[in-house]
Design brief:
Layout (H helix, E strand, L loop, with lengths): L1 H30 L14 E7 L8 H12 L6 E5 L4 E7 L2
Antiparallel strand pairs: 1-3, 2-3
Length: 96
């Protein structure tokens, strides 16, 4: 009985440590700018604003969003999306 209890305790402890380390790694990624960009998105219908980055844009929508925020500022952008057959990074702002 004691051996079973010890192995169960060890397994639970191992699971808790794995979950905790995963949360720590995720929070570090978010602090380093690798987290989800502008999670609130656009409140109203978005309006095209500018393009960002190279053509074709090599990254994801999240990378495009980070490019837009870095270039135009967090207040000027509500989302960034890689669009079109040529894969351009398009930055959008809130419609007036």
């Amino acid at each position: 009985m004691a051996k079973n209890f010890n192995s169960v305790s060890f397994t639970v402890l191992l699971l808790v440590l794995m979950m905790a380390s995963t949360v720590i790694l995720q929070s570090e990624a978010t602090r380093n700018g690798q987290g989800k960009c502008l999670p609130r998105g656009c409140k109203s219908t978005p309006m095209f604003s500018e393009e960002c980055g190279p053509d074709p844009f090599p990254g994801s929508n999240n990378d495009c969003c980070h490019c837009c925020v870095t270039k135009y500022g967090k207040d000027a952008v509500c989302k960034g999306v890689v669009e079109g057959a040529d894969s351009h990074c398009h930055c959008y702002k809130e419609s007036a």
